Amino acid sequence: MALSQSLEDYLERILITKMEKGVVRVKDIVERLGVSSASVVGALQHLEKDGLVRHERYGYIELTEKGKKRARCVYSKHSAI
């Protein structure tokens, strides 16, 4: 499944924030990427539909196993550059 660069950035940010803070909330992504809450929620809905994240309204954001694998791949690709 092809993801846009923007959605890959969301996955990577979720992974990094999880490693740094232990938990990830919408406001963490808003602050780190400098986007609106609505943009984050829209991206999360798309990623959830693709089976990459789990997110309950006003709850924490979790990567699924499939999402962790994809996020690590994006992170490695960006680290190499």
Summarize, please.
This protein is mostly helical. The protein has helices spanning 5-21, 26-33, 37-49, 65-80, and strands spanning 53-55, 61-63. The protein has 4 helices and 2 strands, in the order αααββα.
Shape from CA axes? globular
**First-residue to last-residue Cα separation:** 23 Å
Structural class: mainly alpha
Low-confidence segments, ≥5 residues, pLDDT <50? Answer: none
Most strands sheet? 2 strands, antiparallel
Count, helices: 4
Radius of gyration: 11 Å
The ordered H/E elements are: HHHEEH
What does the average pLDDT come to? 94
Oligomer: single chain
Into which percent range does the helicity of residues fall? 55-70%
Strand percentage: 5-15%
If strands are numbered along the chain, what order do they take across the biggest sheet? 1-2
The number of distinct β-strands equals 2
If you had to describe this structure to a student in words, what would you say it looks like?
This protein has 81 residues and is mainly α. It is 67% helix and 7% strand. The protein has helices spanning 5-21, 26-33, 37-49, 65-80; strands at 53-55, 61-63. The model has no long low-confidence stretch (mean pLDDT 94).
How are the SSEs placed, and which strands pair?
Elements: H1 5-21, H2 26-33, H3 37-49, E1 53-55, E2 61-63, H4 65-80
Helix pairs in contact: 1-2, 1-4
Properties at a glance:
mainly alpha, two-stranded antiparallel sheet, 4 helices, 2 strands
